[in-house]
Amino acid sequence: MSFFPTRAAFAQTLAALPGPNEAAIEAARERQSQLTKPAGSLGRLEDIAIFMAGWQNRTIPAIDKGRTAIFAGNHGFMVHGVSAFPVSVTQAMVANYGAGGAAINALAGFAGMDLTIVPLELDRPTVDFTQGPAMSEEECLAALNAGAAVVTPDLDLLTVGEMGIGNTASASALCAHSLGGSAAHWVGPGSGLDPEGVARKAAVVGQALALHADAPRDAFETLRRLGGREVAAMAGATLAARAQRIPVVLDGFINCAALVPLFVDNPAIVDHCLAGHCSAEPGHVRILETFGLSPLLSLGLRLGEGSGAALAVPIIRAALAAHAQMATFADAGVEKSL
Ligand SMILES: Cc1cc2ncn([C@H]3O[C@H](COP(=O)(O)O)[C@@H](O)[C@H]3O)c2cc1C
Ligand SMILES: O=C(O)c1cccnc1
């Protein structure tokens, strides 16, 4: 049984998002007020602990089982050469993940996250989105379900990432179609295009936007037309996590762009998400502003593959350690106020 048996089931899940547990939020907030520090002095670490308490439904949240899932896919529009790298790099990087040699291997390992790699039909790229919808309805559903499949009920935290040469073009198209703004407004260098390359990418994205301009703007249809398998899988995983009240840390431009079509249908979709970082890809800061999320880190990363999300996990672990381990004023015999 798949998590999203039909596109209607996907839409229904998106329309009926569960909220956090308010009693756990209140209990965690009360605990924070008792810990031996001036009120608010741990800044966003306090907010993170309270956020995690709400979604994990416990006063003292923890990350015993955290998962990083990386989805890989290839894109038909790569015939137009919109990346500084060839399509073959997607498969080569999947092999590199398997061998433990990529940035995400190091960063997920450092963060204490288990790593799941999900290649999605790499030898069958999506349809070129300047010629038609990237995916059929069945293909889009399969990708959403491949994402949902990594979400097991035992997870305390999920981060997702992607590998798919050219997918910053898909991400830009999703943002422009869903939020407005020209192709040029949303494209950037991605993995390393020069200014002429960026202009070429804008022209290709612009052609796709023109072809799909009159298409309905619901989340499924936008992902199907302008997304890719790895992009839809990230959306499916994030929505499946939400349905199970599992908190998610967001990565960069592509990961966030995958959620933009869902955000247009239901802005509450990002309520169980923390923004791990702000990517150097110029569109990312605009998406984060649209989502109303403030990134935990801003280190100039522009890698994708879940790297910025994994990097934020140790900060979240620190917030939970302080929340769990600090003494209360009563326990420590410290005066709470004058
Ligand atoms: C070796 C290598 C490793 C990567 N890991 C993530 N990406 C990133 O680059 C791609 C997006 O950039 P563009 O749209 O310009 O192709 C995605 O695969 C993304 O995850 C990589 C790219 C390369 C070359
Ligand atoms: O922010 C990202 O996700 C990103 C930026 C550049 C290249 N690949 C990914």
What can be said about this structure in brief?
The chain has 338 residues and is α/β, with parallel strands linked by helices. The chain has 15 helices and 5 strands.
**Could you say which structural class the secondary elements and strand pairing correspond to?**
alpha/beta
Overall residue-averaged pLDDT value: 98
Unreliable spans are: none
The largest sheet is: 5 strands, parallel
Give helix and strand order, one letter per element, not per position: HHHEHHEHEHHHHHEHEHHH
Task: Give the overall shape, derived from the CA principal axes.
Answer: elongated
Residues in helix, %: 40-55%
- The share of residues in extended strands comes to 5-15%
Question: Which strand order do you get reading across the main beta sheet?
Answer: 2-1-3-4-5
The number of helical elements comes to 15
**Radius of gyration, taken over Cα atoms and rounded to an integer in Å:** 20 Å
Bound molecules: alpha-ribazole-5'-phosphate, nicotinic acid
Distance between the termini: 60 Å
Instruction: Count every beta strand, where a strand is a DSSP E run of 2 or more residues.
Output: 5
Organism: Novosphingobium pituita
Protein name: Nicotinate-nucleotide--dimethylbenzimidazole phosphoribosyltransferase
Pfam families: DBI_PRT
Pathway: Nucleoside biosynthesis; alpha-ribazole biosynthesis; alpha-ribazole from 5,6-dimethylbenzimidazole: step 1/2
